[in-house]
Design a protein that fits this description.
Helix content is 41%, strand content 13%. By secondary structure, it is of the alpha/beta class. The protein has one domain (4-278): TIM Barrel (Alpha-Beta Barrel).
Length: 279
């Protein structure tokens, strides 16, 4: 099985204060690509998707450069503010630098006000033209807007981070999570099995999240689920080794072929194979 981490962060330490950013590993801590590479090698993970961290804004240079230096090992996901004029032009620039994905973040208040607004449609059109994978740092409340965007901009691949960050205190078959599950009707929508340490109320293996993972599997199938670690935050919260073992524990009974898709094949298809076909 070729394992691909679909959600990993690297950055150079930020100087000064970052008052609006609250993360398990603070921005003032250096998280270089060398540390990520060593962690992946130690655990036998072949490739990783480098997701631009929140505090860097549109300065995607570090993730872009890291991926460009080792394109067979890393793919970069950039951030472009959809509320700033010329967002589509900036996306073209970062894709010319090798970025294969775009991250939109409606969970951030300044971006939420523009999410799915008609003014952002040129950015989505550019993503469709450039064969860019759109990653969403969103909540369950954004599911109706995602539904509309997926319908308007098919077949742009949409990957929802961290299962949409559900509340384990609520039912996996309740209205809130069901709105996310209904997005399975769009064949280009994917879910990441990642970041359980952010929303679980339990320690590893996060048993209170298992019903949500099982429901995602039943609705989306193994072909549209991606495993991700959320490195380096997962190391601060728990451990990379634990994160790597979660699909086998949460989806007991999955075939080896299904696990291979979830833990690597689907990410390769989205971030590597599709890019090669588009060139």
């Amino acid at each position: 099985m070729t394992v691909v981490d679909s959600h990993l962060h690297v950055w150079r330490a930020a100087g000064g204060e970052t008052p609006d950013v609250q993360t398990l590993v603070p921005p003032q801590t250096d998280v270089p690509i060398e540390l990520a590479r060593a962690t992946l090698a130690e655990r036998g993970v072949a490739q990783a998707v480098l997701v631009q961290p929140v505090f860097r804004g549109e300065d995607n240079a570090y993730v872009a450069n890291c991926a460009a230096a080792e394109p067979q090992s890393f793919a970069a996901v950039c951030v472009v503010d959809p509320g700033t004029p010329g967002a589509e032009t900036r996306l073209r620039y970062w894709t010319s630098r090798g970025c294969r994905g775009l991250r939109l973040r409606p969970r951030i208040a300044s971006e939420a006000v523009h999410f799915a607004d008609a003014s952002t449609y040129p950015l989505w059109e550019a993503a469709r033209e450039l064969a860019t994978v759109v990653n969403l740092f969103s909540s369950l409340e954004h599911a109706p807007a995602i539904d509309a965007l997926a319908g308007r901009f098919a077949p742009v691949p949409i990957v929802i981070d961290h299962l949409g960050l559900p509340d384990p205190a609520l039912s996996a078959i309740g209205a809130a999570f069901r709105s996310l599950l209904e997005l399975a009707r769009h064949p280009q929508v994917f879910l990441k099995l990642s970041g359980f340490h952010h929303f679980s109320r339990e320690q590893f293996p996060f048993a209170d999240c298992w019903p949500f993972v099982r429901a995602a599997y039943e609705h989306f199938g193994p072909e549209r689920l991606l495993w991700g670690s959320d490195f380096p935050h997962v190391v601060a919260a728990d451990s990379y080794a634990h994160a790597l073992s979660l699909p086998e524990q949460m989806l007991r009974g999955c075939s080896p072929a299904e696990l291979a898709s979830i833990k690597g094949g689907n990410a390769r298809r989205l971030y590597w194979d599709a890019t090669v076909q588009a060139e």
